[in-house]
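Q: A reviewer asked whether we had any structural model of the full assembly, not just the individual parts. We don't, so I'm hoping you can provide one. Inputs are below.
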Amino acid sequence: MTDIHTLTALQVHNAFKQGKLSASEIVAASLARITQHDPKIKAFLRVFTERAGKNARMLDEKRASGAPLGKLAGIPIALKDNINLKGEITTCGSKILEHFQAPFNATASRLLEQEDAIIIGKTNCDEFAMGSSTEHSAFQKTSNPWNLSCTPGGSSGGSAAAVAARLCPLTLGSDTGGSIRQPASLCGIVGFKPTYGRVSRYGLVAFGSSLDQIGPLAATVEDIAMVMEVLGRHCEHDSTSLPKGPDDLLSKLNAPIKGMKIGVPWEFLENLQPELLRSFQASLDMYKDLGATLVPVDLSCLKYAIAVYYIIATAEASTNLSRFDGIRYGLRSKRATTLDEIYDYSRQEGFGDEVKRRIMLGTFVLSAGYQEAYYRKAQKVRAHIIQKYNEAFSHCAVIATPTSPFPAFQIGSITDPLEMYLADIYTIGNNLAGIPGISIPSGFTQDMKPIGLQLSAPELSEGLLLQAAHALQQVTSYHTAIPKEFL
Amino acid sequence: MATIDKATIKRLAKLCRIACSEEQEDALLHDMQKIIGYVEQLSEINTDAIVPCNYVASTLSQTPFRADVPGQTLSRDEFLKNAPAHIGGMIRVPPVLRQE
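A: Here is a predicted structure for the entire assembly that you could use as a starting point for your response.
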């Protein structure tokens, strides 16, 4: 079989279970794709050739022995480099963690391996997941497989590019303000942010703790459903981890969506580029053909989402990142001769500009005299936004918006931090409200850049959300397109 | 409306424990002024009657507590693997007290 890379994760898993492919063949094919194609896009920071090969051989032996196989058996998966895998380096795209060896597994990594997935490497990301282009990685810039001079989006840009280039069928990312959905949209694949608390954050390096959520990226909604059945389990190491999620996401995916009400926040979409608006409307028309009803909803409050986010996320980041002090782990400056200098110089040398900017901003909004005006105010507007979402969901089952206000953009073209923040205008609301969101491929621009459609649902409504997303994939073929350099 | 000037940046750099060159301070000043200017738009909304959101949505009320039992996390050796400097099983740092 020479075209393993065109298979979805579910197809790979089935081929393995049925004995049509061995895990060693699957992993070898994925590693060969990485060797051949990754130099063009630089999606991977590290590839676990030996580890993956060994695990594949063990899995083949397990199958031969007749032992029961895990729900993800045989699937090669890559992790965003802010998710710990025991014994391997976790850099978060930062110099400060360049040599940090994870002393324990993230719950997500543990669950994947427990279900016989094979972790093949770590993918590039913006430093500490702060960014929307993956350009803020301290190590390399990742390219978009659809246009190598463009960014893949971010911060999970490596995870999105790896799937889009079909280097592996499934990856994990993390989403604090859109970091799974926006790169999925820009790379023409599916990206899913679950309900806050659905996937354990244990072993995910913290950025904005009230916003962070791990989620999968893949070519199809089916693959997302399959892996969410595994990842959506309760974890006692994360105090925000929800009780066990549904086990039957995959089997219920084909439920008809006839009669489903889809909310559209039209005022919020006023300034959308004409080409993206046309694509958005075409997706809505397809939903109408599938029997869904469109209802207008008011989410005009989301124009404040970015301002709220850049107060709350930076406040939380400034607190979380205070642990990087050059004392216990991570980079310690060689210039430092006193304890104070260890802190000051290690953080100066270890953090990049965007991370410093956010730590400063977060420290400012929490500092004496400003906390009430900024942090407290943002918490109130956040409550207001949650209230508005609840009202909107009283009229509809899911809400449709574009995922990103623009398609993939040139590397180096956005230098103003504020302009970069605006990339997340449509995705940030979900993180503020803790609700699930998914981006699915919904078209291409004239110059063949992917366009994504975002669907959002009330908290805990992952099943419904995946059904709605899957229904569109049944009548479109955008998700089967592979960029021509990666066929 | 907050005024952010060079003195603010110097004070924040100290609070954050990040050493900054003059150039870095200038760049941060420019960006921070712009970003804080942007988030000022929140003052448009009257939030007097709103209770601030301390926890995300209602899901947190459903999260169970784990049993309060002691357990082993990391061993000292495993932990020290990532320490920049250690001696005798402890993290090594420069002297905190010096003779004047």
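A: Points you may want to mention in the reply: Chain B touches chain A through 56 residues (CB under 8 Å). The two ends of chain B are 45 Å apart (CA to CA).
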